[in-house]
Amino acid sequence: MKVLVLTLSFGSGHVRAAQAVAREVSRCEPCAEVRVVDALADCRWLFRAGYVWPYWAMVRYAPALWNRFFAARLARLDQHTAPEWAFRRGCPRVFEMIAEFEPDVIITVEVAACEMADIAMREGLTKARVINVITDYEAEPVWVKPLMDAYVVADEDVRDQLKSWGAPSERIFICGIPTDQTFRAKHDDAATRASYGLSDDAPVVLLMGGGMGPTRMDEVAARLCESGEPLQVVAVAGQDARVRRRLLRLRAAAPASLRVLGWIEDVAALMHTASVLVTKPGGLTTAEAALCALPVVMFDAIPGPELRNAARFARAGAGIMTDGAKETASAALSLLRDEHLRRRMSASAARLARPDAATEIARLALCNPSTLQRSGKEDDGLKTEREQGRAQSEHDASGNKQDAPGDHPVLILTISNGAGHIRVAQGLASALRLRQPSVPVLIADVADYMTPLARFTHIRAYLWLVKHAPAVWDRIDRYQKRQTQTSPEWFYRRGCRELFELARRVRPRALIATEVGCCEIAALIKRDLALDAPLIAANDDFDADRAWVQPEVDLYCFVTEQCGDELVRHGAARERVAIWGPSLTNGFDVPRKREEERAEVCRWLELDQQKPLVLVAGGGEGMGRIEEVTGRLLRLKPHAPQLVVLAGHNERLKSRCERLARDGDVERLRVLGWTGPEQMPKLMHAADLMVSKLGSMFNEAIASELPIVALEPPPGAERVQYQLLEEWRVGRAVRHMDELIETVADLLSDTQKLSLMREQARARRKTDAARRIACWLEQALSQRRTTNDDLQSAPKLASRLRADAQAL
């Protein structure tokens, strides 16, 4: 038997996983001929320059750009990472080798390897079975091809992703991430320490940055060495020569506590010896750490799958996500000092381990091919799904447009002109998946599908006006609220034509819109494509533009009765309006114990649990007067609070706020960038008070029972929330900066006032809107299926009656 393991060396993880699978195949079937091929090893330099180098440049110098690029690729359901001709001309040796070797099985361990295997099959170069191995806790639609025989995934979340993109569930196998058997073996701690010149009287911190970086390992190592703690840092730089040179320069200044290594094979022994692992959270590295029951501090995650890897490990209690060298070093030192926490995280890591992943993949590759195929009836004969897929591919090659594979998703339209709409969409998606796990859900950020002109008018110009010319925006906003359209239909059709094409391709079973412009677009999609799909308009703001009212909308879910009445006055049918409150992301919909959350957050951020904690936020774009508020609160006496500043996506603001801390303020100021949905509920439940612009923060603060102090916001829906702060007595609405500082000082000195605000928030708390929408949608879809079945059975019944009449 011939087995080809195909990968691309974008990092050491894919290569190590491929080698682990190959070794296990050889162990399970000694007579098998196994080859591991790195497609980048023999590629042409033009392919490397056009496909590989841009990726590393973005990851190293512009991670935010790569994040947007990857998110857009997911949102658009891209079927390719590069054109087919680029792979054929850039990696000819791979296709030549596939034809010459004639493998029985191809195992792909990187997404581009999957694309190459698919090209080889469609061009008749091979008839091998293809098994895709995904080595992260997040996938992308490119993995899903009709000719693939099996998908090996790390957990249920990745399985659900693939199913939502059309992969047959019976072809998806949850095996974990394949790791080498050496990570399961026992290692001699004393021998490992001796071989690397490590003493027995100090704990070991293993510092890794992936085989090829890019990370700030030298900055983290410097802070660890300067801490004065009795520790030994072993820094494994892999193939990143620049980082290794910087570490070696640092080694000259700290010879006793730092060891610098390049590429090594004996990572397993070091992991078993170390007390803490500090690393970039690659999928394979976290899987290896789990096998070694090693607590992990994760930093410099590459946007995309690595962020998902880190979030999963942190959510399981096996690791800590950090931002910046200072926070990373502090987290590692905290773990070294807290043996109880370290043991608890070690146990959590061990529970995540999948030691038999490589063995299960090997058995899958060596099993009978018929077990990976499912027969299906077509016309009068039988044809396997594999043959159907091949026929479909041939049909596509002839020039016809292929429909999206698999079941039709629920399509949620949102827009990133702030974090609020995105978080509403995420909350709805979670509720829908929980209610109907078999129904795929797709979130589409309309901004990713806009032409440059549409993006400028609807995002950049909007944000600029709100921040720099609020009076102008006030006039525009008041005019717009009275109109039946926020933009002409032709503008949306041309400016978002890629989104219309996506909808035409996936044919959604239902549409949900979380913003007024998205609602107009969803109504146009439903009308233009003649979709028999329910459309839900979910608004978490406290006003109702006239343009929300569209004849195609089946359900309006709004926050307050006043919004509902306003919507009815605009022409919406009363029976279609539901007042269910805001749709919240996961974490805000469950009761939490505040003291436990506070203790966990204070450990994470190294803050004093006994001192007051104030959150300072400005939404996802870091708008508002965050810098000025932070500076004034740092000087607040005598009740000087601890501050956690949430700068969102605004990196310049984050840097400026970090510089505000003087020597005496460093210990009570923490500045965070974009904070994921896993951390925000914890932060808001742990805090005593929040100073923020409103918007989605208003609803989340009420759900967290967190008093909020806000300056007068720019024109728009936030003005209503500003008035409700005092009306509902859940916070304080202030007019200027001096009043804000005085109010914060007053509330922190009088805990009784804060307690009363928490009670009022508890009375206003509504957290089940997303679940109620999911329930309504399930019933609506069920009724439509019943109606369609009745309509389809009517012609059959009529035909049978005619036949009976003729017989009589």
Any chance you could write out the topology, listing elements then pairs?
Layout: E1 2-7, H1 12-28, E2 33-38, H2 45-61, H3 63-75, H4 84-90, H5 92-101, E3 105-108, H6 111-122, E4 129-133, E5 150-153, H7 156-164, E6 172-174, H8 189-195, E7 204-208, H9 217-226, E8 232-236, H10 241-253, E9 258-261, H11 267-273, E10 276-279, H12 283-291, E11 296-298, H13 305-315, E12 319-321, H14 325-337, H15 339-352, H16 357-366, E13 375-378, E14 381-384, H17 385-397, E15 410-414, H18 419-435, E16 441-445, H19 452-468, H20 470-481, H21 489-495, H22 497-506, E17 510-513, H23 516-528, E18 535-538, E19 555-558, H24 561-569, E20 577-579, H25 594-605, E21 613-617, H26 626-634, E22 642-646, H27 651-660, E23 669-672, H28 680-686, E24 689-692, H29 696-703, E25 708-711, H30 718-727, E26 731-734, H31 737-749, H32 751-764, H33 769-807
Parallel strand pairs: 1-2, 1-3, 3-4, 4-5, 5-6, 7-8, 7-10, 8-9, 10-11, 11-12, 15-16, 15-17, 17-18, 18-19, 19-20, 21-22, 21-24, 22-23, 24-25, 25-26
Antiparallel strand pairs: 13-14
